[in-house]
Amino acid sequence: LKQPPRLRTDLHPAGFLQAPSHRRPARKQDFCKQLYTDPPQPANLSAQLYTDSTHNLPSFGNFARKARSQSASFYYFRQATWRRSALKHSQVAPFWLPPDTSGGHFTNTTVFLSNFSSRALPALCAQLPKVTGKTLTKAEGIICKKQPPTSPSGVAAPFFARHPCLVGGRSFSGQTMAEVPGPVKEPEAAAPKRFYEVKPILPHFGGEIRGFSLDGDEPLPDALVKQIKEDMNQYRVLLFKGQGKISGARQVQISSQLGTVESTFYKHPKSPHPDIFRVSNDAEEGCINVGRTGWHIDGTFQAKPFKYQTMHFHSVCEGGETWFMPLKEFYELQDEETRARWDKLWMVVGGEQYAHPLVYKHPTRGDTSMMFHCGPSFCSGWVEEETRYDYSTWIHPRILQAELGKRLDEAVDKIGIKMNWEEGDFAINDNLGNCHYAAPGTQTKKEKVGLRILHRTTVAGEEVPTKADGRSTLAM
């Protein structure tokens, strides 16, 4: 191996080296002999990049298969060190790139190498466009020791650390990351543990969780609470299936970990806890006709409407659905003229203490949401900000409530969810990102459809509704 032969340009039409066509070379040394070129002058390090269409290089088969499973671009990178025109060491390292989604270059991506020298990384970046036709605008080199970092898809990247990478006769395989010279990035931290997995109910809205219990005596772990809040921000409704009958105290405990529990409703004699709103289709079992006045957001009578509700079903009835509508998608479904008209309106609440903007910015998601209640007693009228004190300019509440109700009824089958509950369901609803409505069947007599019992809590809002331009709920 001391006198390398010249480059075999017949192996690749572009003059770059390609893996041998035979399935398995007799020896790796024989394979490496095919890769050597004349020593560079005066540099003591050379690097070359070449493709492999058969993925048959010994010891790298699993690496290649993993790359293919990731729909990745697979290449080999050869690096060599020279001393006085004689080869000192040569190392062949396969690598793969994530799928190209930018149509011309790999941006902020990681080059997944089995092993490599940080000194050779610039040479790899220079060679990459010649072979792949793509430009690598940022390459992050990683040396794996024991725990490989994860790939962009969340799957552990198949690094190989058993072949030490030598530069100038020094091995990097046993060094810490801080000791490795050159621009080598620390491996990314492993993804946080997930306590449960979410199955989307609709592509844009709602998530279902099975095989996970919220019950117990101890408070939920902080990491679990954080995951629930993050998932709420994404899905806006989380449905935990098969929770049995969680006690009122436990439901309130869970709710208190999501925020401050705020109870503003009537306390039914059969409620298991002062902060549990017990709802039913039987007056002896719970409060009746709840949510039947029209589509709404809970707590609009306050300056800061509720942030979340929890809904736990101890018993269900036939036809006792709750309908949910994602407000961002509902607003975007309207024509431009309607959106412009709604953007100017404010809802004066029933007691005329406040006027909420009909269209505003969601406090955590940052996208468009809406604030309204279609119940007759919950709205005194609709106004524009500049003329809110001129009663002659107020729009009668029923005019816009009827318009909203009709449009929501038409849209629910397109972009909403008609939640058909099962006993033991435990849902968390983003009250500021969705509106909801209790279907007519929720109040059918129990003798016909069965008994419906819902335990509900409400979590206090943290911000007043604020429009994208900074204007917020008005004091009347």
Descriptive overview:
The protein is an alpha+beta fold. It is built from nine helices and 26 strands. Strands 11-12-13-23-15-25-14 form a seven-stranded mixed β-sheet, with helices on one face.
Structural descriptors:
476 residues, alpha+beta, four-stranded antiparallel beta sheet, seven-stranded mixed beta sheet, 9 helices, 26 strands
The percentage of residues in β strands lies in 15-25%
Could you tell me how far the N terminus lies from the C terminus, measured between alpha carbons in angstroms?
A: 88 Å
**Global Rg:** 32 Å
Q: Tally of extended strands? A: 26
Q: Tell me about the biggest sheet?
A: 7 strands, mixed
Low-pLDDT windows of residues:
4-60, 100-116, 136-184
SSE layout and pairing:
Layout: H1 28-33, E1 45-51, H2 61-69, E2 73-83, E3 86-97, E4 105-106, E5 109-110, E6 112-113, H3 121-132, E7 135-136, E8 139-140, E9 166-167, E10 170-171, E11 199-202, E12 205-209, H4 222-235, E13 237-240, H5 248-258, E14 277-280, E15 308-315, E16 322-326, H6 327-333, H7 336-343, E17 345-349, E18 354-357, E19 359-361, E20 368-370, E21 379-384, H8 397-415, E22 417-419, E23 426-430, E24 434-438, H9 446-449, E25 453-459, E26 474-475
Parallel strand pairs: 4-7, 5-8, 12-13
Antiparallel strand pairs: 1-2, 2-3, 3-6, 9-10, 11-12, 13-23, 14-25, 15-23, 15-25, 16-22, 16-24, 17-18, 17-21, 18-26, 19-20
